[in-house]
């Protein structure tokens, strides 16, 4: 299994350029979180001030990447001052422009502060037992698109409500998922942010599909991440469990919008994420399947 150390250690390839190795994809396609994490690490490699760390990223997925190919990352500095620096990262495979991202980094400083508390989503141990029972009832999980591949990723995932998240019964457009790195090793603050960026794309677009009884990877619907934004409020420690609580306030025009927050085990608000995804009806699936439900 690919580890974060393998995935997030980039090879220098010239001035402002780095190469990232392939890892588990979505079928033959590169997983979006993989590109996000490696692009963020490239921006960190280009940072000249060791006291500045990424506080936000905004990315657009331009073309599907190949999960079996290495990706090169080209970093352009857009501006750098005493506190902030902003860079653009372009991810390329051959002549294909896979992703473009802007990253803003900041020196830590004090000031006014407030934060929302985590939602009450129930007991973690109960959630883990429910997941194990659901897995046993399914038999061969590898036959299930997307969901069956979760065990190949360097992130361990425990949904607060596995039957709801993984089922095909219409549900309210919100979810809560516990996540942590499988290897559990201490990493640099930059790599910890990249781990969270990777995790932020796992099952996140699922929120927009829940009201419509559609699973990712089903026939008759085309699913892809379109753009992704992430704000870091603190340095995560992904050797420990983090809760991603998300919801989808809107879907339409073949797209769905999701937003959510990452919380550490002690309730600290660590990061905020938003994403818009493609959810296009294809292959004869009735369009009303994706319409509003009472």
Describe this structure in words.
Strand 11 and strand 12 form a beta hairpin. Mean pLDDT is 92; it is low at 288-294. The chain is of the alpha+beta class and 294 residues long. The protein has one domain (4-108, 123-290): Acyl-CoA thioesterase, double hotdog domain (Porin), CATH 2.40.160.210. The protein has 6 helices and 12 strands. Helix 2 (32-46) packs antiparallel against helix 5 (189-199). The chain has a 12-stranded antiparallel beta sheet.
Characteristic key phrases:
12 strands, 6 helices, 19% helix, single chain, alpha+beta, twelve-stranded antiparallel sheet, Porin
Largest sheet: 12 strands, antiparallel
Residue share in β-strands: 35-45%
CATH topology: Porin
Instruction: Tell me the number of helical segments per DSSP (H or I, 4 or more residues long).
Output: 6
Pattern of helices and strands: HEEHEEEEHEHEHHEEEE
Short description:
This protein has a single domain (about 5-110, about 125-290), classed as Porin, CATH 2.40.160. Helices cover about 20% and strands about 35% of the residues. The chain is built from 6 helices and 12 strands.
Q: Topology of this structure?
A:
Elements: H1 4-8, E1 11-12, E2 17-20, H2 32-46, E3 52-61, E4 71-80, E5 84-93, E6 96-107, H3 124-138, E7 155-159, H4 162-166, E8 174-181, H5 189-199, H6 206-209, E9 221-232, E10 242-252, E11 255-264, E12 269-281
Antiparallel strand pairs: 1-2, 2-4, 3-6, 3-9, 4-5, 5-6, 7-8, 8-10, 9-12, 10-11, 11-12
Helix pairs in contact: 2-5
């Amino acid at each position: 299994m690919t580890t974060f150390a393998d995935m997030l250690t980039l090879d220098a390839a010239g001035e402002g350029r780095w190469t990232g190795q392939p890892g588990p994809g979505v079928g033959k396609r590169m997983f979006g979180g993989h590109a996000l994490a490696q692009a963020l690490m490239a921006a960190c490699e280009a940072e000249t001030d060791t006291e500045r760390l990424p506080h936000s990223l905004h990315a657009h997925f331009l073309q599907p990447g190949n999960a079996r190919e290495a990706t090169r990352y080209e970093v352009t500095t857009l501006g750098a001052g005493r506190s902030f620096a902003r860079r653009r990262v372009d991810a390329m495979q051959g002549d294909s422009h896979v992703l473009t991202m802007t990253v803003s980094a900041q020196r830590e400083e004090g000031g006014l502060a407030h934060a929302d508390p985590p939602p009450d989503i129930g007991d973690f141990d109960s959630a883990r037992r429910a997941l194990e029972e659901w897995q046993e009832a399914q038999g061969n999980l590898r036959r299930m698109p997307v969901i069956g591949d979760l065990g190949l990723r360097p992130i361990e995932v425990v949904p607060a409500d596995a039957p709801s998240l993984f089922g095909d019964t219409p549900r309210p457009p919100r979810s809560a998922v516990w996540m942590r790195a499988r290897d559990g090793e201490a990493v640099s603050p930059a790599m910890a942010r990249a781990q969270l960026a990777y995790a932020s794309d796992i099952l996140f677009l699922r929120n927009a599909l829940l009201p419509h009884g559609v699973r990712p990877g089903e026939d008759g619907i085309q699913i892809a991440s379109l753009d992704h934004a992430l704000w870091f409020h603190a340095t995560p420690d992904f050797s420990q469990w983090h809760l991603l609580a998300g919801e989808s306030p809107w879907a339409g025009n073949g797209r769905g919008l999701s937003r959510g927050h990452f919380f550490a085990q002690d309730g600290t608000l660590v990061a905020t994420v938003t994403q818009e995804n493609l959810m296009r009806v294809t292959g004869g699936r009735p369009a009303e399947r994706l319409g509003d439900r009472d």
